[in-house]
Structures are given as structure tokens and as C-alpha cells.
Amino acid sequence: MTAPEGSDQLVSDWVRFDSDRVVTVFTGRVELGQGNLTALLQMAADELCLDPEDITLVPADTARTPDEGYTAGSMSISVGGMALRRATSAARVLVLAEAARRLNAAVTALSVNAGTIMKSGEATGEDLRVIGCDLELDIPVADHADPLPREARKFSGTSAPRIDMAARVLGTPFVHDLRPEGVLHGRMVRSSALGATLKSVDLDGLRARPGVVEVVRDGSFLGLLAMTSWQAVRAQEWAQRNTEWGAPPGPDVTPLEVVQQADGPVQDIHTRDGERPATAKSFEVTATRPFISHGSIGPSAGLAIWEDDRLSVKSHSQGVFQLRGAMATVLGIDADKITITHTPGAGCYGHNGADDAAMDAAILARHVPGRPVLVVWSRAEEFCNAPLGPVMATKASAGVDDFGRIQSVDVSVNSVPHANRPGTHGAPNVLAGTQLATPIPFPVSQDLGPERGGGADRNSVPYYSIPSVAVTKRLVHDLPYRSSSLRGLGATVNVVAIEALMDQIACETGQDPAELRLAHLNDTRAQDVIRAVMEMSENHRVTDEGTGWGLAFARYKNSAGYAAIVASVLVDEEVRVTKVSAAIDAGEVINPDGAINQTEGGIIQSISWALKEQLNFEGANVATETWLDYPILTFSEVPDIAVQLIERPDDPPLGCAEAVQGPVVAAVSSAIHNAVGARVTDMPFTRDKIITAMM
Amino acid sequence: MAESRHIELSVNGERHHIDASPETPLLYVLRDQLGLLGTRFGCGQGTCGACMVIVDGKAVTSCDMAVEAADGCRVETVESLGPESEPKHRLARAVLDEQAAQCSYCLPGILMSAKALLDENPAPTEADIRAALNGNLCRCGSHVRILRAIVVAAAEGTT
Q: Average pLDDT for residues A136-143, to the nearest whole number?
């Protein structure tokens, strides 16, 4: 199916009526564990006036659903949901017009209740699902879309339980669990250095390992197929010990130092009108983050089978259409020969190895036509070969007048590129492609443009009303590592820099941190979340020996969800976050409990980034291979969390999954300062860094 | 790989006789030989808890436990708490009632750690629960809900 764009979208791209009252709704979005399919179903049920259980919702599948691009950027509801709401409303409008004709009634006299067409409150004997079967739906959505008014929505705004949760907890829905007849188990053999060359391998020895049925080598791409998954693991381990790689050189200093010292070209993100005004006081903060890992609990996996020169793939990719295009290029076949069906994986939080593992499976499976191949990456591959969460350094400085008003802010962002997903910058951007004898290398990344909320520069322009602002971004291409999108992109570090700066100004000019922010915000919704979080957190805003609290605010992308956070910490041997309050305004919320769940998850993941996470390197090699080298927040370290949604059912939905990352890390930083007087803005905020900052 | 040998397992109350090379981790026997795919592969190094099962009453990581060490033992897996259409066990019901998951990849392992805890200590404190789950990583950040669900399930079991 081709990509329906804007006015070209047809009702039939999104809705299908079949006999026996079967209603199918299609979305180009995918469920990554955020609960978006449940919320999308709620929206569709409202517009079709059906019960959710009477609708089958089909997520992204290149053979069946619209192409909605990547499921990313907290846009499943704000963009995907709104498109679905319009399309399903158009289907209802078309059915009602036909019902009016059949009943010889005015459309305005008709309504739908659980599928039954009602006239003046009485059932007419006609059914939306039956009439729908008779209609031509290849009609533009835009010609008929007419979403119901808010008060007519029955399911949107309610905390419906997740439709997929029981299967995920107690069943076997994951790519990893697929066991089609005749499946072979694939494993890859790779270096932990990007661009490493396979110098020598004992292919005959590998072929002779127990259970191994095929070994595929193409340039520096090396994989094997075995009868059982354990045989595949053992053969992979043997191969790792019996291959030699030539790695490119790595930097002499840390990746962060390379990024901080970079002097390449600078791009203007926001230019200043006139000169920077002279002010009485100036302040400056630099926030940094090292390379971090997406850290999916389940390593990436993909299933592929070739039959009659056609390729079928099951993948937990965030963008199956874009992956199809990438695969077509790498495999040298037409995209219409490939079908990719989204199938769940573990949470990914951005561009992890999902696409790469599917590509690996497709290449290996080509050597065993007719047999399904399941590739599951090892934990070490997930750490070393998946794209990394970008290293960044953002400097923010401010000029403040004698009255404590901020007159100018300058922000400069240095970062490796974000957003290098399959299909971006006109290249496949899949790992296997770069390893083949005829390689398709990764292009030089241009990061994301401002029309998509920016990449490294996301949230680099302060949301505050400040007369004179200048913001620049410098992309750093000097590191031999592979980086791409991680939840929130550049927003995390940029918000930490700006919010730590705000906290510093408040502290040093004797202003209340909430009042300072309120005084510099023109947007009442922004002010509302700050006031709400201050009220919520009253009982845990305690400053005492080693105990402190911090406030932070951001509006994600400066155009999406609002988040204000108060975090309390106890600084002892280590930093412990004890309590977090969050006030969120995500506009209309389809499923409040789902939004709270996403927010809680965002808070916990961000605390883990703030306190613990960094990848290690040895030259060009990623040197983190196990969870022991990469601790994340554990159950004993998780704080109490309170989330308040400020619901705005009459406003457009804004998304919520990525709203809190920056504010949480920033609030933790300010809380540490409040507790011990040390301003630490280099993630992770470890004991050593705090002690250094205190001296 | 060593020669296959005969191994006897009781899994969720059902007796299985299998042939496996003795060093094969229990996880792979469960998933690939017995078709019990609810137990997840997460790290293969015993560090994330996604593969947690209960062996003779103790929660263990099945990815680094050789199947021969489980020979003759009583093994419980997440399947014993289901089925998904109508979960038998209060822990599974509580997780669904509290919507205590996001991607859910870690949940089967967490449920087995929690079950081993409640089987041994029917009235744990929240600190006990947290300590029992420290070997289980969750990346989506569903911890607060998971803790709440286990507290609910524990209370249900003692009333």
C-alpha cells in the first residue's frame, strides 16, 4: 500500500467492513509497550459508535496498513490518533448518509449506538457494520471527516485496560517467540567496533560445530544458522573466539571530550535580534551526557523467510515501511517483493537494533529459501552493535539585570547526530549493509530538521520569555561510533542545561525557583503545571543535612506536552532519589492511566540516566557487554512517584511519553545542589563528581 | 557439547523426560524442547532476571543454570500462573488489575521472583518485595505499579 498523505488519504486505507459484522481498523503505528493501540482503539470506537471489542485493530504491516512513518516522537496519539479519528469519523458519516437514504430519513435524525442505526432514539433495524459492507470507501477522508464533539465520545478519556497486556505478561507475543515449522536459529558474529574488517575466520570449523547447518559470509558480514537456539549460541561463542577483526582507530580521549573540543561548522538555530544586552550579572552552566544505551531488556530479534523470491519479515521495527525500503536497497530487489509485519519486541525507547536484526535475518534466510530464520541478538550485541544514545554537551549562559529579570540567554549545543534510522538521509542505515563485500555505508548524518522538532537542538531554545536569545548547534562527526535516536533526542541535555541555569539564577539572585520561572512564562498552561507540581510536592520539599529538592519545567519540543517535576534526593554514600512529583499537561488525554504509566516510566528511566548510566569504550570498540558493566536503576532504588494530569479534553492531544526526561534529570541536578551545594550537570551524577564539585 | 543424557523434570506439575546435553541452560530446554515460551531470554548471563523460574521453591535465572542441575527438580514457570484468558494466580491477576506493565518483556521473570517470595513469606514488607526483585531489571519503568500489584496480591493471599 502506498503512503497516504494529507488529502490523499482514503477511508478505505483505515477502515474495512466485512460480512458478519466484522470491522477492521488499520493504523500505521506500532505498539512498543506504551499502550498506544489501546488508546487508538478507544478513538476509533468512539467515531464508529461501536464497542472496542467489536473492532479489530491492525498495527503497521506493509501489506495492509497506511504508512505513517516511524512510531516515535510522542506522536502516536497527537498525529496518528487524530488521523485515525478523522478517518473513522468519515466512515461513520458515509454510513449515516446511506442509512438516511435507505430509511428515507434526514441524516440529522440518525445516530449510531453500538453499531445499531437509531432514528429519534429508536432502533431502525439498520446496522453500521452491515451498511458499511455495501459502501465504496475509496473516498478521500478529507471530504467527509467530521469527528464527534467531545461530549459524544464514550471511550476517549477513560482508563480502559490495555488490550494487549495479558498476552504480553502471560503469553508469547514476541518476535523471539515465533517458532514456525522448520525454523532455523540465526546468530551473528560481529566485532564490537563499527566498521571493523573481518580479517580471518575458520569457516570450515564453524560449519562443523554441532547443529550448524549454514554459515554465511559476505565481506565482513558473518552469520550462522543452527537447528536449535542453544546450538546457535554455542556456535556464535565459538566463532567469536575464532575470528580476527581489524578495527579502525579510536580517539585518544573520551567521546565527551571529542564532542566538547569539536570546532567544526556551527548552525544557527535561533538568531538574536541586535546585540546581546549588557547586564549586571551573568551565569553559565554546561550540561553533558555520555553515550548511553537504549538498554532493551530483550535483545533485538527478527524473523525472515524467502518463498518464490518474495521475502516475509516479522520485526519489532518502529517503521516497517522505512525498513522495507532499506531492505530492498540492500537486497537489490523491489520493495513490493517484501512484506514486513510488525510483531512485538521488548521496549526500545528509540532506534535500537530492531531493524538491524530483521535485516540480518533477511540476508541469512536468502541462503535457505523456504525456511524461516529467527535471528536473536546476544546481550553484548545489543550493547555494542545497536545504535548508541548520543553523547552531548550543551552550554547555556544568561545575562540578568538588577531586578533579577533574565535579559539574554545563549545556548550552544555540541552533539553527535541523532535520528539515523533506516531511510533517513537517503540511505538504508542498516548495520549489515555496511558490512557486505559491496557495502552501503552509513551516510553523513544531518540530524533532524526543525520541522520535526529538531534533533540535537530539540528544546535548545528556552521556552521562557527572554528578550535576547541566541542558539547554535554543532554536529560532531569525528567519532567512530554509531549514534541514533534515543527517547527525547537532544531535549534531555538541553533542558538540563537551561533548567540548571534557571536554578542557578534563582539561587544566586535570591529568587524562588518557581516564581522565577512563572515570571518568565507567558503561557498559562506552562504556569499551571508549575503551580500544580509545587502544590503536590509541598510535603517533600525539604532541605536538610544531605536532603534537598529541585524543580524543573519544559514543554517538549516547545510545542508538545508540558511537564513540571519536583524531585527530592538524599545524598549520602550515593545519591538516592526519594520522591518525585510530576504535573503533566498533554492536552486531551485518551487514556489517563496509560498516560500516567508512560510518565512514571519516563521518570524512572530518566533517574537511571541521571544517576547511573554510561557506556565504556576501548579505542573504536564499545567495551560495555553486560548489565554488570551497565547498571540501571533497580527496584530498591525506585522512588515514590506521584503524577497529576491536567486534562484539557477540548484541546488537541499533545503526547506525553517523552515530556519528562529533561525535567526529571534537571530536577535531580538541582535537588543535589539544594542538598549539598554542589552543582553537578555532567551525567551521570556520581558520588565522585559531587565530591569534586563540592571542593 | 557433551553427549545428550536423559533428564527428568517436573514442570508446572507435569513430568517430562527429555534428552539434552547436560550443560544446556534450563531456559533453552523450556523454550525449545518443552515449548514453554513464556520464560524470556534477556541476557544469557544471569544478570537481568527475564528468565527467572522457580526450582524447588527458589527463584533462579534459567539462562545460566545447566539443565542437569535441575534434574529431578520441581520447576515452575510463568505458564503456571495463567492462562492469559483467565489467570489462576493472584499475582498475575494483580499485575493486570494494576496495569503494572509496559512492554512486559520482564514481567514473567518478575512474577516468578514475586511468587517465590510470597510462597516463602506470605506477608512481606515493601522493602522485602523490593529486595526480592533486585535481580529483575525493568527498563520501561513499571516498578511502582509492579510493587503495588505485589502488595495487593500479598494482601489477598493473607486475608
A: 96
